[in-house]
Amino acid sequence: MATEVSSPTIPQLQSVQKAMALPTVGAAVGQVGAFYTKVKGAHSLLEWALSTAEAGVVRAATTAAPYVAAPLVAGDAKVAAALDELERRVPIVTEPPKVIVETTKQAVLSRISPHVNKVYGARVAAEQRVASLKELSWAKANALLSTAYGQKAVHSVDAGATYAMQLLDHYLPPVGPQEEPSTVSNDPALHTVQTVGRLSAVAARRVWANLAYKINELRNSGVELDVRRYVTALLAALHLANVTSQQREKEEQDKRDKEKNTTESAPAPPPANNTEVTSSSPTTSNQVKSTPESKSTENSN
Fold it and tell me: pTM for the full model?
């Protein structure tokens, strides 16, 4: 009759029990265990493979238990002491994960909040300073435009805007419904800004509206406008104009250089007063005859 031999059991590790008692570790192990169970039950082949692996690990641990029992006990005691020291120094590890997250969040915010408040305060101060400078500049502009010269400038802007609108109505007539003009402010600076902005907006709308209207007219007439060919032809015309201008400038420069060379190579004319100088100045023989010695010599002869 075969005798039954009790297999050695794996000793219970105190460090593992202490670690599992920590809420964070317990929650993490629970999440991993749930995922492992879900994966194991997904397919019968996976369940068989994982069950076989578990049995092999248990068998290996049971076989090695008598040989590693003493070292495990010593290491277990050290790890358990380290966990006790961790709980003493960091009591928050014994709290639930939600409490740990909230406490960590509050600690981080308490460290970052002063710097964030400083940055926010600096930004608010800068915005207030910019706003005050803007208001001061606006007030200065209104004070300047309220003078006699300022009123003349405002009237000049209004007259120029009216003339520009007349030109737009003549060369770029309105197409389709137009927006009603907004009310003009009594603020001189705001009035000037609104006038210029309204003129720019109207000009831009008129250009695009008339361009779209002309393109639609061409399409309705059976003429398809090829934008690429139009741009290519425009670039070719600009290039031809540039080449022609350069050739004309080169010809004019050659003509000027030729005239300059002709002027420099022509002989200089003789001076006009040489004859007068020759006729008026006495010769050497005349000077000799006019002396007393020459006269005496002539008498003796």
Answer: 0.33
